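CO-FOLDING WORKSHEET

Operator: S.A.
Ligand of interest: NAP
Run index: 307
Mode: holo prediction, single chain
Checklist:
[x] sequence pasted
[x] SMILES validated
[ ] output reviewed
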Amino acid sequence: MNLKIGIVGLGIMGRGMAANFLKNGFPVYVWNRTPKVAEQLVAQGAILLAIPKDVASRADVIFEVTANDESSRAVWTSPDGILAGANPMKILISSATLSVRWIDELIALCAQKKFKFCDIPLTGGRVGAETGALTMLCGGDPTVIKGLQPVFDAIAKKVFYFGQAGRGMRYKLILNFMQALHIVGFGAAMKMAKAHDMDLEKVAEALVDRPGGVITQIARNRYFKDTDPITFSIEWIVKDLTYAKQYAGDLDIPLLDDVLEIYRTALSHGKGQKDWASVNRLEEKYLLQSLHESEGRDCRTSKRRPQ
Ligand SMILES: NC(=O)c1ccc[n+]([C@@H]2O[C@H](COP(=O)([O-])OP(=O)(O)OC[C@H]3O[C@@H](n4cnc5c(N)ncnc54)[C@H](OP(=O)(O)O)[C@@H]3O)[C@@H](O)[C@H]2O)c1
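OUTPUT RECEIVED:
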């Protein structure tokens, strides 16, 4: 009998994961703040529960895939939350992208109760979640992670292990910083091409060949037109880059400051629900203006550009 899977949070990622667990014959228990979102999954066989605590008490392996630190804290620690329904037999996983501060606090809470906890953030976006081709970025007890392989097989193509609990999340923040930089870098390269009357379609195709890779392809696809549905929102990449900035602490990483500022500006212009790669379609004028205005702001260190 397959392990019983719980999913708390049915956004872009949680919905795709739940659908693939169902396809692979796992019993699936779900909860979402907005229950209507679960209708299609329920029609496919998922069992919708009223509170996260019930998901934890009914399932063997529980994935939390909500938005940010605030939502994650609420679904883990409220009286109706996951911790209230868990016991040391369950495997508890956070697959959201969260700050190091909060994930370490959650790890400590689980350790006090002798609960098995792993941080397993994801990469692969909407398509990866929908097609069962995610990459799992694991931190936690290696024996527990190894035992999860049959579970991973239903939703993922690759598994990376980074060490003790908390290491998966740390890697995820480093990864999203680099991915965001790559998307914004694609936009900057295209700006040069445009200014010099190059054939933009040809330049974009050549960039997909080299440097190439998934992120260049995503950047190219969104450069010429917006996509609906989105794969990952500008709102959440601002969140991830903000957590990466906290994690970097006193380190001087001006590229991180720049990319965060570009995404923050897009967010402040009401573009939070656009795809993160659509940032290159936004008015170049206001992005540039924002970078000039931000010179000297606290978030940009003065080491690189002395005032
Ligand atoms: N999309 C990607 O490409 C991708 C890839 C890797 C990792 N991630 C990470 O995975 C997580 C989910 O991303 P997503 O793209 O699936 O986001 P999403 O589509 O915006 O879904 C967000 C989920 O969080 C829930 N939520 C938001 N605020 C809440 C609150 N206060 N209390 C309880 N639930 C709340 C939402 O519930 P409602 O339906 O009620 O709003 C929804 O289920 C994020 O941490 C994101 O950074 C995303």
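REVIEW:
Strands lie at 5-8, 28-31, 47-48, 61-64, 91-94, 116-119, 122-123, 134-138, 156-161.
The domain at 170-304 is CATH 1.10.1040.10 (N-(1-d-carboxylethyl)-l-norvaline Dehydrogenase; domain 2).
[x] output reviewed
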